[in-house]
């Protein structure tokens, strides 16, 4: 037989079409797609199932210390196992530089920990908190050449935030070196100012996290980030978009030719600020930044995903336990400012979208594939190897049973958080068999992959569809000769 594995009789999503048929796999690659392929050494029956590219989660936090110094609950084993059980076959978490750390030491540390533990493939984005000469001129260009082709920068958090001129330095460099900059856009001073007034008045409960992180803080910083990107003529990607006004701002900027991309996450589709307002400290389980907002914002995020304003759907899995190691460092007297920021979602990200997006009729199966995998692969430089069922691509495949009903509870999940913000909901559809490079990672009898069997993906340059600003009128950019030279658009003034 020409195949090590044949997936038979599935509904295969490939190249913008749905094909009823088989997928032949050899040496970890997809080598044939068609009807009536010969049997493999092993066959998987996919009758009545969807055969989809494995998910790519391009925003998750694994074995990472937060800006506030708290350690995630998941390591590279538990996080990648949980990802695989939820239909994800590649993750791109963060390697986080904190002030005073050099980029090579950060990358070596993350690379070693992931290589020992990951069960699926992975890359890293570099979080830049220390954009000094050495970092910008030497270490970052080298990291990019080594396949770390994306960066995250923060506009808030005392220990992480960059000034606008530093953001401009990073953006200008990203064009020269071929990397994509991800921006956490919230206005630091607005949040700090509101939070201080709340605390002065004795308002420390979890729900006040949502008050401090006002939607305007997100919208203002997003506008500023977009403006910085336009000034130096570089694309950027706004992560974890939460609010309706921010979605609309991004849509308008795109219509004026701005090269702004954006991402959202399950917590902005399925949670609201009301979830933070639960009895006792329970609301801490729903605390992330930016926080979930209201029903109108949920609808706006759906529309953004549907019409392409938002290009990627990631988990922003930031796993902290509901105890003194994470959410409640001071037990019941923990103030909202002291709770670890972030919610778990690496396993439920795709099942939630499959059920409430695809099966509910909000998006079609091609949109599901683009939002869960294909767009991540292109924007983060992993196509055509990842993100599609295509001949020559890695055999990273999730086989979904659309009939299976699942009542969500924390004890069915595989991460180390110990709770889920989606407890008690019932969804439809589940990825029952998951392959990574042709290896069965998960099937009906559980996990098969070994610790350390995942591979580092050395990513190429981002493939960002380029929008052009109009030549004149609203949105046009008058780049004079001098400005062009200053920002590096032209070599000589
Ligand atoms: N930003 C993230 O990307 N994740 C969790 C918290 C945060 O501020
Ligand atoms: Zn962030
Ligand atoms: Zn995050
Ligand atoms: Zn098995």
Describe this structure in words.
The chain is an alpha/beta fold and 493 residues long. It contains 14 helices and 18 strands. Strands 1, 2, 3, 4, 5, 15, 16, 17 and 18 form a nine-stranded mixed beta sheet that branches. Strands 6, 7, 8, 9, 10, 11, 12, 13 and 14 form a nine-stranded parallel beta sheet that branches. The longest helix has 17 residues, at 215-231. It starts with a strand and ends in a 7-residue tail after the last helix. The relative contact order is 0.16. The mean pLDDT is 96. The structure holds dihydropyrimidine-2,4(1H,3H)-dione (DUC) and zinc ion (ZN) (3 copies). Residues 59, 61, 316, 318 line the site of one zinc ion.
In short:
The chain has 493 residues and is α/β, with parallel strands linked by helices.
Small ligands present: dihydropyrimidine-2,4(1H,3H)-dione, zinc ion
Helix content: 25-40%
Taking the sheet with the most strands, its summary is: 9 strands, mixed
Multimeric state:
single chain
What is the overall silhouette? globular
Indicate the proportion of strand residues: 15-25%
Query: Cα-atom Rg, whole angstroms?
Result: 22 Å
Poorly predicted residue ranges = none
Structural class: alpha/beta
Tell me the distance between the termini: 64 Å
**Mean pLDDT across residues:** 96
- Treating each run of at least 4 consecutive H or I residues as one helix, how many helices? 14
Number of strands: 18
